[in-house]
Amino acid sequence: MRRTARPLTGIALTVAAAALAAAPAYSASAGGLEVSPASVVPGGQVTVRTAACGYGGSATGDASAVGAGSLSLAPDAHGQDATGRFKVPPSAQPGTYEITATCGDSGRRITGDLVVTLTSMRGQMHPRGSVKTGVGGALGPDPVQTAAGVAALAVAAAGGTWLLHRRARGDGI
Question: Which residue from 49, 55, 98, 47 is spatially nearest to 79, judged by alpha carbons?
Answer without folding.
Answer: 55
